[in-house]
Structures are given as structure tokens and as C-alpha cells.
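Please go through this protein, sequence plus C-alpha cells, and consider how the sequence yields the C-alpha cells. Keep your notes short.
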Amino acid sequence: MNPFQRLISPRLPQAAVGLSGEAASVVQLERRGGGLAVRSAGLLPLPAGLLRPSFDEQNVADGAELAGALTELLTSAGLARRKRWSVALPEASTRTSILTMETAPASRNESEEMLRWKIERALGAPLDELRVSRERLRPDAQGRQRYLVTGVRLAVLAEYEQVFAALDWQAGLILPRHMGEAWWLMRDGGAQAAAGADSLLVSSHAEGFTAVVLRAGSPLYVRGVICETEDRADELYRFLLFYRDRTTPQAAEGEAPPAPLYGESIGRLLVAGTGLAEVEARAIVEETLSAAPRAVGPSDLRLAFPAAGIDFRQIAAPAGLAALAWA
């Protein structure tokens, strides 16, 4: 089941903008052969303090200055006349969680009430203060229903939407950065399922990182971590211990280890954003899980990418949202 299925109808634009506290990026894709190709892309560093990504506090220090920076970026990329966009918001401006219904509700009303209660607890805010996207995932191994939930405060979203309105944009899809980045691993879910291994996205940013484990192209675990740069390696290690403890079968004392389960290790690794090196993340995965994941890049994802001039890690989020036009 594709958790983006409801989001990608009607057809989405083939271009997207990505925002972070450090930079703004833009990507336009096109179909080429059996894959996709970058038709145009750009990256513009933002002045310090212009964007302060936060779930609870003001994000945009100066809307007019941000609009001017985006205009400069689109002009340099040759996309100034385009008005329809998807947008990847800064990670720290949003919260994402996977919710599991421990018991089967007696009615649809009870199910809705239980889910609302869980969303408020997971996201840490009343529903009437949030814009929430929720998608039903595959049931877990015990048959319990699961939901992928993403939320942003309405007050925070309004700050960005005011900037988009000043630019006369039609922003039809607005999601956190890790959702666009995760799409690159989701679209190949069938091939990875055959390989019998999970995939890991580590979306790094100035405020911390988001880790997403995908199984057969569907989110299994999501954890957002706000931490200092020097603590990222330790926090990623803790997340992988959590993953290992829940996926690796344990042998009883004196018995041989049980047969491996599907997806008990990470087969593919995508490190996006800035602040955590791919080689460091790969080493942490290998140390924790005793298996070396294959780091994936544009060629592995069937994306024709310029050889120089821009780093795929910094535009993976908007590129993933643009790729949804062909989902």
C-alpha cells in the first residue's frame, strides 16, 4: 500500500522547492527513458536567522526577504514563471509519527476518537492547532492497524503560505523534507522486498536528523531527533539499537540463534541533507547491525543527475516531491 496514494491525485507538478534553515533548493524533473532526469536545479544559501525552523515558534523572520530569496533562486534556475509547486518544509517545523492501534475499536466513531487522541499525544498539540496528514499503512505482524501521521502547526504553516501567496504560487503539496527523500526508497519497494532487507533514510539538518526505516517500500519506523551536531552519531546509534531489538530474533539460553527474519538488517542507506557524512552513518549501521548497507545515489534511483555543480543530498527532498508527478 502506497501511503502517498491519496496525496498524488490529481497529478502533481513536476517541480518542487525545498526549504531548510540554511538554504533553499529547487528542482524540476522530466521523464527520460526508463527513469527521471533533472531538467533544472538550483541551491541558494539563506542569510543566517532568516529561517529558524521550529514546531512551536515563529519560523520566518522576514517574509519579504524570504520571498526575494526564492525569486532569486527561481530566476537563476530558469523557473521564475512557474507557479505550481510542491514544497518540502524544514524538518524541525513538522512532526511525524507512526501510530499503532493496540486494540480493535468497536465502531468507526471509537476508531476516530482513539486515533485523534493518539495524534495529539504523538504530535504534542491539540488537533485544532494542527494541519495533519494521515495515511493508513500495512498492518503490523500482529495484524494491528498502523497510520503514518505528519503534522505542522497552523500558525507555522501560515507563515510559509503568506510567502507563497506573495509569490503568487499554487503550493498543492506541502510536506516535511524527509517525506520527499523517503520517496526515493519507497518507489523501489518491490525490488527491495525481493532482496529481503530494509532501507534506511537519515535526513540530517541543522537542528538534528530524522531516521526512517522502510520495509517493502512502506514506512516501518520514524524518529525525529533534535540534538547538537556532536550528538548525532550517538543518537543514530541509539535508534539503530531500537531497530535491532525489535527486528532481530532472540535465542533462548543455550539454544542456537533462530533463523533470520525478513528485514532484520538494513540493505540500503540514503543519507540526505547536511551535517552527517554518509561514510559515518554507514559505519554506525555496520557497527550496530554487523552488516554493511549499500549507500544509494542518483544512479541507483534511476535519476539522471548533473555530474557537478550541486549535491544530490541537498536537493533529494524537492526532487522526491517532484518525482511524485509520475508516481
In short: The radius of gyration is 20 Å. DSSP finds eight helices and 14 strands in the chain. Helices lie at 63-76, 108-123, 154-166, 177-186, 189-195, 232-247, 278-289, 312-323. The chain has a mean pLDDT of 89.
